[in-house]
Amino acid sequence: MLKLENINYFIMQNGKKKHILKDVNLSFDENKIYVITGPNGSGKSTLLKLIMGILQPSSGKVVFNGKDITNLNINERANMGMSYAFQQPVTFKGLKVEDLMNTASGKKNDLTSLCSHLSMVGLCARDYLNRPLDSKLSGGELKRIELAMVLARKGKLNLFDEPEAGIDLWSFENLTSIFKSLKSATNIIVSHQNRVLETADEVILLKQGKVEMLGGFEVVSKLISQEKCTKLRGGHE
Ligand SMILES: Nc1ncnc2c1ncn2[C@@H]1O[C@H](COP(=O)(O)OP(=O)(O)OP(=O)(O)O)[C@@H](O)[C@H]1O
Ligand SMILES: [Mg+2]
Question: What is the pTM of this model?
Answer without folding.
Answer: 0.91
